[in-house]
Amino acid sequence: MNPLSKLASQGEALRVLIIEDSEEDTDLLVMELRRGGFAPLYQRVDTAASLAYALDHGKWDVIISDYSMPRFTLAEALAMLKTRQIDVPFLVVSATIVDEQAVAAMKAGAHDFVMKDRLARLAPAIRRELRECQVRLERRNLEEQVQQSQRLESLGLLAGGVAHDFNNLLTGILGNASLALDMLNPSEPARSMLESVIQASERAADLTRQLLAYAGKGRFFVRPVDISTLVREISELMRTSLPKKVRFLVDLADHLPPVEADSTQIQQLVMNLVLNAGEAIGDAAGTVHVITRLETRSLNGATNAAVGRHVCIEVGDTGCGMDEATRAQIFDPFFSTKFTGRGLGLAAALGIARSHQGQIDVETSPGAGSTFRVWLPAAEAAAAEERVPAGAHHSHADLGGTAAILVIDDEHLVRATAKSALEYFGYTVYEAEDGSSGVDLFRKFHDRIALVLLDLTMPEMSGEEVFDLLRQIQPEIPVIVSSGYDESEATRRFAGKGVSGFLKKPYTAETLAERVKSVMAVSSRRMRA
Fold first, then answer.
1. Please, which residues have CB within 8 angstroms of residue 488's CB and are 6 or more apart in sequence?
2. pTM given for the model
């Protein structure tokens, strides 16, 4: 096998792999390439083993091959390229090839052939094939982008359906567990078990939010936020979530410009990246480093992020790193290099970044760790004040009432949970298993019913249709819309209709009672006015 050789310093650089058993013929090819305006950086091979090594360890712009060789055949050479999925111009140069052989070579994967007595055709043929190779590459990239877009769209539809059904089940679990917890005395041993059930239910609800985030539909409460503050709030949680041997460092910039974002989703994004970094390190000792900073991106920058000021969240690790094949798949849902992976972790992170008009860049190589950088466009408005923790526990009397409430939901578990919770707080409850029976029940008892809890998505008659019929019977009836979908979906579907409130599934018994109490208080003030 020849060492890599360069015979010219002037001209268009070209990395050439020459499959030729004759050194003299190789020199003629190289001279012709120089005459055609190239500065060839070439290597000659003449056996299957040397070709395999060159293909596996080199990067080539073009391959030129003799047709007849004593040690292995052209067909074998073309098969080796096909096996490795290498797409570079492959030209056959021969003094003896006939038309039938040339056609067979083209069918096997060669792109063109040049007779040795017409080598003046070689340079123009190479330039043409290089252009066509670039066109093929661009076409493949475009097809991959289209396929990725289609996958995202399909997953968006799937995410909505899964979130709806899953959150209905979680409503029964979380609602009943929270109600049972409220009924127990503080000294009851079962309280800790119920608290575990509630915590597990809330973590399961986070999974549905990740599904929506991956589909780019996960925005809930968007406002100007300070990214460093959000990361700082969960830094201890991230630290305790990593393996014990992993050192966790944070370097958070002060006085960053705000970002228009949903706080929960951004924290989920960072948490997913940190957990992924910890998994990349595994049981070994290592470091995960989270950094925030401000940068101005330009069209000539190292990433494809949009132009302008961006807040960067950087999560680096000293783990195993990734090769190109792995890197190309890390944002696919449920992809993992382990037998059991984190599922939607990185896919959800990408969806969250995209839903905030941001982007994720990855810098990695095998054995050298990985660095993920999230770019989020900076806003002009001042960041909102730090979030106030959830209010203190309300007493039973604070949330109680005596009014009659109609619950319309096609899921028996959800209806039963809502009924138990509302009756516990003193309300009278009517139930309807679908929109039609709900409208009939309301028509019959509308003078007694003070509020309606309405499911957004039901078979046969949708939540919007039911809402319109209820308001025709009694225009001022307060209606709370409940759904496992994002609030923005309900807002879009009920735009301009005057819905009294929204209740996201799953919910606790106390959350349901709070929402009913607040909506009825607003309705009462309006009636007095």
1. 217, 219, 220
2. 0.53
